[in-house]
Amino acid sequence: MAVDPTPVFWNRILEVLARRLPSQQAFDTWFQPVQPRRVSDEVIELEVPSLFFAEWIQQHYFEILNECVQLALGSAPRIQFAIRPELALVPPVVEELASAAAPAPRRADERPTVLRELALPDSGLNPRYTFSTFVVGASNHMSHAAALAVAEKPGVLYNPLVIYGGVGLGKTHLMHAIGHRIREERPEAVIYYMSAEKFMNQMIAAIQTGSTLAFREKYRRADLLLIDDVQFLATKDATQEEFFHTFNALYESQKQIVLTSDKPPREIEGLEERLVSRFNQGLVTDVKPPELETRVAILQKRAAADRFYLPGDIALLIASHVKGNVRELEGCLLRLIAYTSITKRPEPTTEMAEEILSEFVHAESLAIEPDSIVLVVATHYGITRDQLKGKRRTNSVALPRQIAMYLMRRQTTLSLSEIGRFFDRDHTTVIHACTKIERLLASDRPMRDSIERLAEDIQEGR
Ligand code: ADP
Ligand code: MG
Questions:
Q1: pTM
Q2: pLDDT band per the 50, 70, 90 thresholds, residue 127
């Protein structure tokens, strides 16, 4: 049987990196959160939480990374980045990989959370999304209480529990927290977490390989089924049908179902009435944007978890400017940690925070429409909007299309899947486009200039 060398190789690279990087903090900030997708002699694919992150590594650590890779592997593979926003900050990668490569004996007082996650790889739960890391405030306390209740008495109180609300407000976090809590109580419980999109993709794959029966049975054995972003099911009739039956099977055997969506079920256009009414049988609660105090508390908690000293006035400064979305709040903090580390200061200054905020708030205040990106890029390359969004793959349209995808990733808050949907393609195509353009940006000066000019034109609405 072929053994995937990825964890072992990556671990070796990390060891060399840890010795060569200028500081421990540089290592913790920029390499801890990286997840290796594939490491071989030809290519290294690394998953990072954001485009900013990939750019940062490319600009500041690319040489050193290449060097360490050569030292560790004795070969010079290509290094590629893929963006996976849910990686967020600092999961304990080193420990995880070390233990995956060679199980180390543990002291009794160490909390074995990471190992447990690894031992149960199927659940897909993010170890960081627990009740203890969730900050409760007026904006989310109903949903938090409902999630806790469901975790204490699954299948009994509210079934399903539906949590809805805008992007980056903690829906996925709460959903995973339920999973963790139930697992703590009942380690043998069968828990599945996945996005509605993944549910659909797996169902399609099952149909193609003639294994629908196995697919059905798998999910109907769940004690807890967590389906994220069910609005995705809108208008996907076959998937809704399958989901309806899975739902009923679980519901009838009193197994807990938890769903999230961006709107209340009733308002999801294209969601079948029978699903809407099933969803409404349970409890539907919402999460709203957090108020100032909660935003400050989230920043403080997050900083403490990263052992980063965040003075109160700076937390307040950030929290009063970044309002709509917790992910962005965390993004600001990440940058602040980075700046502090790069400038080798013992703690962040107000000036640094202001500088970060000026980029951030500026970018946020000008909401850029995906259509305007398409228009600017298409005009620049002398093709039509339809050609840009179309299927042809000749270089004269494929490159502009990839540039448009990249800029959409950079200049809007759309997720990879949403961008994919916009172009009627899937998210892996978008990742491919972004990595390709990033590589061009790093290697091709004229191309870089012209893409930066396009970005400015879009920013200024020209
Ligand atoms: P959603 O699923 O609603 O889009 P997520 O659950 O992915 O949002 O949350 C986005 C990020 O913000 C995650 O890193 C999450 O841990 C964090 N977050 C959101 N709400 C809270 C909260 N109340 N306390 C702590 N962290 C939070
Ligand atoms: Mg989510």
A1: 0.60
A2: confident
- Pairing of the two strands 224-228 and 191-195: parallel
What are the beta bridge partners of residue 284?
Answer: 162
Torsion of CA 234, 236, 242, 247, to 10 degrees: -10
Reported as a single tens digit per residue, the pLDDT across 343-371 is: 888 899 999 998 888 876 655 545 688 89
Region of poorest pLDDT, from 118-132, 379-393, 424-438? 118-132
The answer to whether the CB of 173 is under 6 A from ligand 1 is yes
Q: In 3D, which of 407, 418, 409, 414 has the Cα closest to residue 374?
A: 407
pLDDT for position 97: 31
Distance CA 186, CA 271 (A): 34
- Name which residue sits closest to atom 23 of ligand 1, judged by CA: 135
Cα separation, 54 vs 49, whole angstroms: 8
**Is 170 a pocket residue for ligand 1 (Cβ < 6 Å)?**
yes
CA–CA gap between residue 82 and residue 36 (Å, rounded): 10
Structure tokens at 322: 């970044």
| pLDDT number for residue 2 | 58
Ligand 1 center from residue 55 Cα (angstroms): 24
Q: Closest ligand 1 atom to the C-alpha of 128?
A: 16
